[in-house]
Amino acid sequence: MSTIPACPQCAMENTYPDGENYVCPDCAHEWPMAAATSADDSDERVVKDANGNALVDGDAVVLIKDLKVKGSSITLKMGTKVKSIRLVGGDHEVDCKMDAGNFMLKAAYLKKV
């Protein structure tokens, strides 16, 4: 199978490399090879906390802000430590278990311990 990507403009697959660009002979669209290689690496998503530190599964984090839980009277207090987080896809990147229950949190409100 060819490693040359299909044209992003017309989706035809008979593209070819030309110097530092890929070229589509059907629509004459040219795009840089560097963008195509960085798109291949985007499968590995990096989740960062409020300070910019990369988070991984199993990390311990601390809440940096009081968070009100929608549909409940529960408030998660600032400074609460959460152990053994799990990273998931979506808008709320962190899945965790706390005394108050299971929650999905945004990494922007967490700090790695």
From TrEMBL:
Residues 47-113 form the Protein YjdM C-terminal domain. Residues 3-32 form the Protein YjdM N-terminal domain. Gene3D superfamilies: 2.20.25.10, SH3 Domains. SUPFAM superfamilies: Prokaryotic SH3-related domain, Zinc beta-ribbon. Pfam families: YjdM (PF03831), Zn_Ribbon_YjdM (PF08274). It comes from the Bacteria. Belongs to the YjdM family. This is Alkylphosphonate utilization protein. It comes from Paraburkholderia rhynchosiae.
